[in-house]
Amino acid sequence: MVSENQLIDKKFYETLVSEEQASYAIQVLGEAYLEEQKNEVPELGEIRYSQGELYYHFKDYEAAIFKWESISSELRPWARKNSADAYYQLGMLSTAEDLYKSIEAESLVLRAEVALQLFSLYIEEARFDLASRTIKDVVDFHPDYPNVTEVARSFFEDQRDWNSAIDLAANEGIRTGVLSWFDVLQGYVDYGYTAALQPEYFVPVLETLHAEDSQRFEKLVLSLWGIYEKQPSYFTWLNTINAFFMKAEIDKRNTWYGIVKTYKDTYISLLDGSHFIKELEEIIPNTLTNWLKLTDKNSSLFASTAVLAWNEIFRGSLDALVVQEAETMHRGASVHHESFTESVELYQTIIRWAEQLELQVGEKSKWMVNQLMDRSARTLLIAGMDPLGSALVVNGLSGEAVISEGSAAFITVSDSRQPEINQISNGGILPLPDLEAIEESSNYRESIFEVKFPSLLLEEQALTFVNTPGLTGSAAVRNEFYTLTHMADGLLVTLDAQSPFTERERELVLDVRKRTPHLPIHFVLTNLEKIFNEHDAIRILEDTADRIHDYIPEAELFAYSSQHHQGDAASFIWRNFSGDHLPVDRTGNMLFYIRKTLAALLEKRIEMENQHVESIRWNEEMVIKLNGAIHQVTDQETENVRSITKAYKLLKDDVRNDLTGRIPDLLRDCASLLKEDSDFRRIHILLNEEMNVRIQDYVKNRVLPKFHVSLQDWINESKEDFNQSQLLLNEMAEGFNTLYGDERIELACDYRVLDDWSRDAERMTSMVQVDDMNILMRHTPSQLLLKGAGKLFGGITQNKGTLYNQYKKYLETMDYDDVASTVAAKFLSQFVLFEKSLERDIAMFFRHPYNVLNQHTEQCQIEISDSQSALDRMRELPELYRDPITLFKIRLRQYEMIQDSRK
């Protein structure tokens, strides 16, 4: 029987030639050919096919093709394939390709061989798309053909065709169950090549791998989780993996620590305030169900409390059997040891969320939490009904007179290399220069004062003292004290030996014990030196200790006096408040501050909404006031333009009237210059010159000085007008600044306008020049007649008298109004230009107030718009604030359940 391998390797001839004949196989086949021809119906196909194989091996490809072309038996498909191979070897790739494509065969092996040859041909011709399509076709119809999947994988990787490579690895892993294919796929996932694929793609892979190898299954799940966590399809992945685990049969012997931890991290990240409840209402229940299903005993407390906390808020969203299982698991769970760290992370998450939404958490509250987070230090709260007692103890133990007698402030005392004093309020942290500044502070009742200085005792014991004012005071002081008990690692209550452990002190201590059950409470008895009888002092000490033990059996009482050695008190502190014996539940205290912070944020959200409403109202009122002010400035400007320009016009008209009224008289007076013996042939020239001289003289010596003085008076009067306007604007600015609460608006006008006017007045009154005019040399009929007569008769003596009389009469009766008007027009030309600029200059005077008022109006409009947008956003999306706080409360409730389990 012929094997397909013989056909593939072109060794079919071995069926006709024995091993002994192999060395002269061509001769053997030739002889067989001749022998077969002798038959009546010769069967030459197998011989020719074998001859073609031998020619091919001897690289006589043309002879091989000749032999194979004549094959018509069942070997014909293989012969055609071999012929195509020969054409391939001859470099006739197009012919080879056509021949390969023409082969039709039922044999999968032959189809695979033909396809692989085409695949190689396409690669050689760099026709990679066809090569890819061809190798995919082979994998599709004959994936078990030797090395075909490895060839395909190598090709896809070389071409960086990762989608095809991923499909190959996934499909082969599912088809064969061979784990190496899953390892290949794992590598693609780790390199990020699968990031663009939808999570549903991997479900069949996970189903197969879950059944084959649990460790590889977990590794692939964690890698996919890490990839999709950074993708927009993250929620699709969570739904996909949750659906998988909901259906999967879980072998409890498989402990998937990585998946369980990832479920925990996912749960925490989903409840970090960045998602709405609507987005989570389907994902979280399934996430919790699967987490609980997969968890082991060591992590069961966190998973079960997460289920129970969610169910408290969203009842009915979880299957009743799941809740029941969580309750059972909760009762038998191991103690969770990361509670404090996780509580701190929750607090920090809340703070980050609040800052993103511009919800301010009080600085004092954050400072208290920071004190609590410092696990290397301990905080001792020292309090009593009498502030003198606590001040005495703090000053004595710290070695410095830090607390003044009767101080009503909360003061912390701690060690530091550099002395430092800070006032800590919800508004921020303010450095203070000295201790006296504490009592002088305006809001010391709402503050905590932090005093740091070098102290050996505080350094050695890593202690911070918190001194409280007398607790007989206001409810606000007591509430602050109760808040501080959650920050403290211990409470030291000071008692007065003259009236120790009164009813009020007992009630205070029991109230503290109820609020903070784990807080160590001890007592110090002061003023014992005032008991002069030693026997009475011992009796008071013992009696007080007995009464204390009736309520707090573990408490110790220390008799403190200013004469005591500091070491005795330090030993008492160390013995009772050392870290080795400190049962204080810092996690519980952290949860207290988280709950307090969430309550404050809810109030802050309401406060923000009210602030936006008030901002809109206030700014709208300010816009009205500012617009009114702008109208007032406009009115002032208009009035100043009217009054100042009117005064200037009157001034200018006075000058014009002076010139037009006086110049004609000056010119007529020139008739007195005529004499009977004057040279009438030139008299008109001389008179014209004199007339111009008299005009220039009058303008220079009479008009200009008077005009200069008038201009200065006008400038001074304008200044008074401006001053009145500035006074009004100052009052306006003062009113606005009262409304703003600071010196925000200054409506200073630009008085440089007056300086410009003064310079212009000096320039115009010092540089006026009226050009000479042809007064008597114009060509009017009368002038022509006189000039002609003068030239004609000027030399005849008997005619001079007549000319004299005619000239004089003419000069005295001549109309000089046009000359005067021309002089006035020339004289006032630059003053007219100046007048035209007055309105612009006055506008410049008011420009700054206009700009300031307009800028504040625009700013008010911006604040109105911003506040309205924020208000609309708050009202349209109440879940923007409500949902994160609800989710934070769920996590808080979970941590409280964990905390209760520890008890």
Automatic annotation (TrEMBL):
<dbReference type="InterPro" id="IPR051943">
    <property type="entry name" value="TRAFAC_Dynamin-like_GTPase"/>
</dbReference>
<dbReference type="InterPro" id="IPR027417">
    <property type="entry name" value="P-loop_NTPase"/>
</dbReference>
<dbReference type="InterPro" id="IPR011990">
    <property type="entry name" value="TPR-like_helical_dom_sf"/>
</dbReference>
<protein>
    <submittedName>
        <fullName>GTP-binding protein</fullName>
    </submittedName>
</protein>
